[in-house]
Amino acid sequence: MIHREGRISVLVTFFVFAVAAAALMLAFGVNWITVVLSVALLGLFCFVAYFFRDPHRTASKPLPDEILSAADGKVVKIAEVEEGEFLKSKCIQVSVFMSIWSVHVNYYPVSGDVVYSRHHQGKYLVAWHPKSSEKNERTSVAIKTETGKMLFLRQIAGYVARRVVCYAKEGDRARAGEQMGFIKFGSRVDFFLPAGSEILVKEGDKVRACRSVIAKI
Fold first, then answer.
1. In contact, 210 and 134? CB cutoff 8 Å
2. Residue 5: which pLDDT band, with cuts at 50, 70 and 90?
3. In 29-103, which residue ranges form alpha helices assigned H by DSSP?
4. 24: CB partners within 8 A, 6+ apart
5. Who contacts 26 (Cβ-Cβ below 8 Å, separation ≥6)?
6. Which pLDDT tens digit goes with each residue over 128-137?
7. Residue of 102, 140, 187, 212 with catalytic role
8. In what order do the strands lie in the sheet with 198-199?
9. d(CA 198, CA 65)
């Protein structure tokens, strides 16, 4: 199934590539070169459709203090940092990098109330750059969990990713496993957890949204 954020992109890609393949055949005839180029265009179209896939994902039922991963990808950073936008305190940052092969749907990692949601314009540094969490285009979301803890997270655009879509609005009720947004083409999600949280992953681990528990707070 194609995600709603990618349906126009997939249709436009199909139209452009179909016209390009037809133009090649009309201009140069049917030969091995035009056939190879047409197959290459078909392969690129299949990749675009694959990238915007929307798999049926049912969340495991986390315990009240468990944080599910909001994204598929690899854990690239675990560090104690000072978060200055919302929490304004020391916390533990866990970053999950999504490659172009990952599912790019983002999901709520906990149930609770959305108390903060902001979109920030910014640069397009590579997603694993140390400053991308503060400098790149991004959205910031804070969720007050059912146990009264505060979870802060960011969706971050990367060098290739040029659009971050976030559905979370202040006052919304977040439910673990429901879709929170989408990031187009290679990007990152940062979790900012209260100091003292028990981190259940390590750098290099691969995680799955709605399945992997990354921490207990």
1. no
2. confident
3. 32-51
4. 34, 37, 38
5. none
6. 555 556 667 8
7. 187
8. 66-68, 213-216, 198-199
9. 10
Do residues 34 and 28 touch, judged by C-beta distance below 8 A?
Answer: yes
For helices 32-51 and 7-28, the axis angle rounded to 10 degrees is 180
Distance CA 113, CA 94 (A): 21
d(CA 103, CA 55) in angstroms, rounded, equals 8
pLDDT digits (tens, 9 = 90+) for 93-149: 999 998 888 888 999 999 999 999 999 886 655 555 555 566 678 899 999 998 999
Strand partners, 116: 142
Q: Quote the CA–CA distance of 170 and 27 in Å, as a whole number.
A: 55
Backbone angles phi and psi of 157, in degrees to 5 = -75, 155
Query: Is residue 184 a contact partner of residue 48, using CB atoms and an 8 Å limit?
Result: no
Provide the pairing of β-strand 213-216 with 198-199.
Answer: antiparallel
Token pair in block for residue 161: 């990713």
Q: Is 187 a catalytic residue?
A: yes
With 0-12 / 13-18 / 19 or more C-beta atoms within 10 angstroms meaning exposed / middle / buried, residue 214 is buried
CB 202 within 8 A of CB 78: yes
Structure-token match 């202040």, residue found: 170
Which pTM does this prediction carry?
0.84
In single-letter form, the type of residue at position 36 comes to V
